[in-house]
Amino acid sequence: MTGRSWAPHGAISLVCLTALFAPRMAEAADLPVKAQATENVKVCAAYGPGFYYIPGTDTCLRVGGWARMDTYMNVAAIFSQGSAFGGPGYSPFAFPFRDAHDADYFTQGRGVAEIDARTQTDYGTLRSYFRGGAEWDSQSGPGKGPGPALYIERAFIQFGGLTFGYTQSFFDTGIGYSIATLFAGSNTWNTTAAYTAEFGNGFSASLAVEDAANRTTGVQATGVSITGVTSPSDFPFVSGGTGAPLLYSNYQAGQQTPDFVANLRAEGAWGMVQLAGALHQVEAMPPAYLGSAFIGSSSTGQWGYALGAYTEIRLPFIAAGDSLYLQANYSEGALNYAGLAAGNQNRLQAIGYIPLNSVGLMSGAYYPLADAVMGPDGSYEMVGAWAIQGQFRHFWVPQVRSAVFGGYVSVDVPTNVVGAASFAMWQAGVNTFWSPVRNLDIGAEVVYTAVDGSRPLGITNAVSASGGVIPTLVGGSANAVSGAVRIQRNF
Description:
Elements: H1 9-29, E1 52-53, E2 59-73, E3 97-98, E4 105-121, E5 124-137, E6 147-159, E7 162-168, E8 189-200, E9 203-210, E10 219-221, E11 249-250, E12 259-268, E13 271-284, E14 300-314, E15 323-332, E16 350-355, E17 365-368, E18 372-374, E19 380-382, E20 384-397, E21 400-412, E22 423-434, E23 440-453, E24 458-463, E25 469-476, E26 478-490
Parallel strand pairs: 3-16, 10-18
Antiparallel strand pairs: 1-2, 2-4, 2-26, 4-5, 5-6, 6-7, 7-8, 8-9, 9-12, 10-11, 12-13, 13-14, 14-15, 15-20, 16-17, 17-25, 18-19, 20-21, 21-22, 22-23, 23-26, 24-25
């Protein structure tokens, strides 16, 4: 053998082929690669219809919502602040006054998205839920024109029997067959931290800590009653277009303790029964004229409470979908638990409706609302209230349903507080909805509302922080008919 190098014949062939095709292989590498097929969305049957697995995860998701248009005539919640809106022009009179300056109707468009995400874990289902959106109002506030607003109904997390976030108060059931929120009875959304224990066969119990601010009405200070009046010119706080103060002096202190809520519940194919109770702290600050360093420097507290009983009875033997709903509430120092709220998200400090005629004479009613009332000596007593409510829904045919509903609420203010006034309020209404296709509702509603008080409409001197007097309107009786038309598509 010489020292000349050599290679097997196959190796030479491989080298030649590599040299020949290497440029073309490089060109092929620059060509786009065909993408892999995306993972198909899979149905998640564990939580009911409409749920799908989020691709690449074990979380099930359902997305839905609704779009709605409402038209309210004579203002659906005519007795509450923020509902008797004046138009964008000038008027010296605000709530509770009504005159030709106020619109006879307003419209609202609202769109809401619903997102429900659930994941099965070793500790049970982990759930997060959101429902909210935005709305457009033809009157965005007293004396204002059209405008948009954000809207939220739910934002909560559930895990292992625990609930954290913003949702229906655990004192309530959230059942309602009417467009209007009835003044009698409790139906409030709130921020809560709760635990629910399931005992089987539809029995459960819940304990909740809920934000007291959403249930706090106030502490009313009153003074010496003076003569009644019949004309707006007799109101020094109305003349000149100031329109204030109509509300009482509010000595509500900052809330220190949340509300404690508990319920017992049983439900099944027959319907539902729930018993509920709540503790609500009433915090009042002493007036400065009684010697406190400055108003708001200290406070005293008492505990109010509320009780509620609810039942929904399903009546399929009359027609499929028929049901009867009943509610009864009692509160002492916790007025919002008995009702008198014009929506699921508000708490009122006054109820009233005072129509003004062409010569300026007044009639109607106006009553401040409070958890407690304070006398000139700084001591305060709880305000009691009780309410009953009934609703019945009937399906004439699967596409047409009607509901009749009504309620009565009585507010008992301690008689030894000068200038305070007890009153009662009741409502009755009827609506009918037509669903020409699935998930589309077209309906109209009429509601009669009346308030009857224990004293004539007139002026009471409320006590100011300095010990002076503030003229405050109180008393009277009034009634009104209002209506609403709703078109809503759920998806």
